Amino acid sequence: MNAVELTQNALAAPAVEVSVWALFWQASFVVKAVMLGLLAASIWCWAIIVDKIIAYNRARRSMDRFEKVFWSGQSLEELYRSLTARSNEGLAAIFVAAMREWKRSHEAGRVSFQGITDRIGKVIDVTISREMERLEARLIFLATVGSAGPFIGLFGTVWGIMSSFQAIATSKNTSLVVVAPAISEALLATAMGLAAAIPAVLAYNKLSADAAKLGSRMDGFADEFAAILSRQIDDRS
Known about the structure:
Blueprint: H1 3-12, H2 20-26, H3 29-70, H4 76-84, H5 91-107, H6 113-135, H7 139-171, H8 176-236
Helix pairs in contact: 2-8, 3-7, 3-8, 4-5, 5-6, 5-8, 6-8, 7-8
């Protein structure tokens, strides 16, 4: 077949739609499954990102309000009574947990400085761990999509190209009009994998750093409050 015949065949071939929607419907079942999975993962990633941004902003505002009240000179007993009637997060949860243990120890007649200090320290550590677990919940999904997304998309691309070569071998037609749509279908899977992975990686790094900053803030308050309670214990001893 000479160049003239190839040109005539290409011109005579029916026009093939190459829009994203058309490429999806023309893809094989495996490639469609990969694309749908990546689309679902991308949507869930964005839902997590938006939820975490809102949650972290709310946590920062809550910590700001609590610290303002805590350092305003209000007595610890009054602040404790006002907070026990509602659910608390962040610094307020640490304060309530430590105060509860401190009051229980004194009400039970335990006045051992080392014993009370150890128990309060353990209660604070457990509370911080729970708060960090809540803040970091579902971030692992972002990391998973960020690392596995490109490879899943590449799997769809490889599968699509294999199917394309099989179709080319069957039809015995290697014209660009026949090859281009099939290759485009396969490459769409890789594009979707990257579209899901890149935002997931960027968001995971940013949200992990934000969670670490909130954790450092809780650690700092815990150390300050533990020192305050130790002075209270000394005064009562």
